[in-house]
Amino acid sequence: MLVSRVGGIARQITPGTGLLLDDPTDLLAFGDTLCALLSRPKEIADLGAMARLHVLDAYVGDEHLIGFSLLVEWLVTG
To answer: What are the beta bridge partners of residue 51?
Structure first.
């Protein structure tokens, strides 16, 4: 994944799961980075595999339910 460091996306892209560009308006940097990345298919595959694992670990399944239940427990028990 190749994205700009804007909003919450920087928090979602952890090391090894994608590439972050500092300036979302720098099209030259985007193009250069994309061309360099496309010449390294193994790195693309590795980024994709790590991103998939990160999503499964952090965003899918019971992680949100566990966090919500901990919040409710904290609110109830004060």
So the answer is: none
